[in-house]
Amino acid sequence: MPATQRWGIGLGAFVGAMLGAKFPFLFSDWQQFLDGSTWCSNGKTILTGLAGGYLGVEIAKWCLRIKVRTGDTFVIPVAAAIAIGRLGCFYIGCCRGQPTDMPWGIVFDSVDSQPRHPTQLYEALCHFSCLGFFLWCAHKHWFTGQRIKLYFILCAAFRFFTEWLRPEATIYGGLTGYQMSSLCLIALFGWLWWRDRDPAIIYLENIPVID
User: Fold this and answer.
1) Does the pLDDT at position 32 exceed 70?
2) Is the pLDDT of residue 94 over 80?
3) Spacing of C-alpha 205 from chain mean position
4) Is 105 helix (H, G, I), strand (E, B) or coil?
5) By three-state DSSP, how is residue 143 classified?
6) Phi, psi dihedrals of residue 175, rounded to the nearest 5°
7) Cα–Cα dist 85/129, whole Å
8) For the chain, what percent of residues have pLDDT higher than 70?
């Protein structure tokens, strides 16, 4: 692809992910939203950031009139980046889990003296596992054109079940907002998978490279 198209898609992914990651927090404090300080305050979520990044890429491709599927090229770098990012969360003690008596519980001094689930490490392991799995899929040419959707579905399902290990408030039916968002993302990307199942669609990895 021409450099302008590659940079355009990358910019779309970056802007979409940043906006998506901040979106749930825009309305948590209406005054901060009005004065613009929400954008500079703490609070981001990977879950909606992934969806925002996907939407940003689709908008960029529409603007640049790119017709080929490009999602597969994002899976491996995104999985690696999020896995490393979760290690950073573990280092500073954010995104921690509920208290636990499991032998691998971690005491985060910034919170209290109770051992807690290291949910950051759980999620890092999930994304590192996805990294290995999709490297193997790329080698075997499995799930061609659908890998990014499968990755998002796996991430949302993982977050849905591990959310019970996090100290998040429930909203409806005993579910947290993140669990409800996870179910929405699973449904959305499941539908996109069904929509894009046509084998006649051209995928980026099937286009010959000319040096």
Assistant:
1) no
2) yes
3) 22
4) coil
5) coil
6) -105, 150
7) 15
8) 83
